[in-house]
Design goal:
Blueprint: H1 2-46, H2 56-66, H3 77-81
Length: 83
Amino acid sequence: MLPAAAGTAIFAYFRYVREQERQRRTLLNALFAELANMFEHYTYAAADLPADASDTFELKKRLRWSKYGAVRSASDVGKMLSR
């Protein structure tokens, strides 16, 4: 009976470790995907900005419209760092 319990405990531990690694990889993939998306967004948004800064109202308006929203994976970064 004791060897079966020990075998089950070892199996459960290795399964837990594998699941933690999978979650960490998923979080890293989500973070890098979101960073790539932000890079693409600002690459395209930069073309919309006026070349001269003489019209400050227009510049501020375009900057406001091109602002990227909240980064969803930023709240999960703490999960990655705590491991």
